[in-house]
Amino acid sequence: MGRGTDRGTRYGRRRARAGLAVLAAAVVGVAGCDAAGGDSPAPSPSASKRATTAPAWDTSPGSVAAVGDSITRGFDACAVLSDCPEVSWATGSSAKVDSLAVRLLGKADAAEHSWNYAVTGARMADLTAQVTRAAERKPELVAVMAGANDACRSTTSAMTPVADFRAQFEEAMATLREKLPKAQVYVSSIPDLKRLWSQGRTNALGKQVWKLGLCPSMLGDADSTDAAATLRRNTVRDRVEDYNEVLREVCAKDRRCRTDDGAVHAYRFGTDQLSHWDWFHPSVDGQARLAEIAYRAVTAKTP
Length: 303
Prior knowledge:
Elements: H1 2-36, H2 45-53, E1 64-68, H3 100-105, H4 107-113, E2 114-116, H5 127-135, E3 141-145, H6 148-151, H7 162-179, E4 184-187, H8 193-200, H9 204-210, H10 216-219, H11 227-252, E5 257-259, H12 263-266, H13 284-299
Parallel strand pairs: 1-2, 1-3, 3-4, 4-5
């Protein structure tokens, strides 16, 4: 009687386990139908992750608007102390530059579907207003190069604090995203201002133009290499690096934003790439180099 009872108990346990297995399979089956619909299998976790994180980037946008400062206006590239937007790296029409817009759209379409809202002397605080104007055109790509003037101040203490710079860029991006929810954004890094000083200081004409008040925090007392001057220039250099980190971090939060990954800042401008009037802003050749960097970033299959 004891052995029979043991066999009966084991048999009952097996039936109970089998019943639980059937019930569990039924529950999983119902959950699968609810998640995927009909008889389709539920997507795997990795597939779901790919669907939600895949970049929404078009390497051939149909229109371009540019915002920023004097570099994007082609300042001093064609004549002294003058804008020359036709050689702008972003939207210029000059064949010598082959701007980002021309490379993306072709010359004829670029003339109709690209716009330059950059302003010489603009700082990051001005970017929101520029973005607001640009949004009226409903561009598919907004090209941004701003921040050099936040470091180019009368003194290093007058430079825009990094926290303010971040808040201003975040405001501009929020405004852009509110007005242009699907627009793509290309953000250029800020050039290495100290390298521009080191190249331009060899030219006597350039140094005379610098005395008119061009980027005093970096270019003031251009020939001095004493401890105070070196500290001043290094302070500007470090602030630009901090600004570039802000540009990267803020852009990284937006799925439709790309930076140049520091390429403009790393580019070693030589005298051929500098304006032959102020030896600080990009020349026509320098603008062409900026256009190349931008085009590579925008058309890369992955950022």
